[in-house]
């Protein structure tokens, strides 16, 4: 076991205790250098299955495998020392039975050293959450827009326009909270519905495309850094990474073609 595993990290109960307190800062990471930077600022780092779309170029998260999540989880754990690291269980590795969810989650925790997993929580999920928590696995739930179900939901549109759907989202969040989740991500719902969820559960809500009234916020890091020209409406771009990369690569290309790179500073001279 490496020394970094003994460093004091934020724990799942500490996140739960932040309900109604200072907003909880969360972002996603998929690699060690990014995790090292985020770790200075974030209470919680999520190794999201969004990795499939923003790193591997998939069109949905449905094709993400447990091995992919473990590889990225290991990288993030090498970079982060302080934040709580949560790894997503991908589609197809937890929904059919609590036992299967336990096998998947235990493997993720054993092989990455992360402290918790996240599952997208439909009405079927309460039994699984309780089963995992009783067996030592902290669970963060995810309600509202559940990207792994986009084929059933019909796309990535915001959820809860109809009352019956809005009520179901609140019920799913309450069930996830009562079953022992330490926090719940609320994605792609109206601010009003997100506030209702926040008031209805005893655990922190982590909003994404939700409301400033949630107990914390999360964004997909490459989205908020501006790596992509097209992002969901709820994303605020805090940087323009796509432009920075394009400008840098264009300058490098020009310098290589004009034999200006490598210059004196970038070459070895042995005396
Ligand atoms: O996969 C992911 O990055 C997520 C966040 C959007 C919450 O689930």
Please give the order of strands in the largest beta sheet: 1-2-3-4-5-6-7-8
Shape: globular
| Topology order in helix (H) and strand (E) letters | HEHEHHEHEHEHHEHEEHH
The averaged pLDDT comes out at 96
What is the β-strand count?
8
Our count of domains comes out at: 1
What distance separates the N and C termini? 44 Å
CATH class: Alpha Beta
Unreliable segments (pLDDT under 50, ≥5 consecutive)?
none
Bin the strand percentage.
5-15%
- Largest beta sheet, briefly? 8 strands, parallel, barrel
Helix percentage range = 25-40%
Count of helical regions: 11
Q: Rg from C-alpha positions?
A: 20 Å
Bound molecules: 3-methyl-2-oxobutanoic acid
Overview of this protein structure:
- With 271 residues, this protein is α/β, with parallel strands linked by helices.
- The chain has one domain: TIM Barrel, CATH 3.20.20.60.
- The chain has helices spanning 12-16, 32-39, 51-54, 66-79, 98-112, 125-134, 150-153, 163-178, 191-200, 221-224, 241-257, and strands at 24-28, 44-47, 84-88, 116-120, 139-144, 183-187, 205-208, 216-219.
- An eight-stranded parallel beta barrel has the order 1-2-3-4-5-6-7-8, surrounded by six helices.
- Helix 2 links the parallel strand 1 and strand 2.
- Helix 8 packs parallel to helix 9 (191-200).
- The longest helix has 17 residues, at 241-257.
- The radius of gyration is 20 Å and the shape is globular.
- The mean pLDDT is 96.
- Residues 28, 46, 48-50, 88, 142, 185, 187, 208, 218, 220 line the site of 3-methyl-2-oxobutanoic acid.
- 3-methyl-2-oxobutanoic acid is lined by residues 28, 46, 48-50, 88, 142, 185, 187, 208, 218, 220.
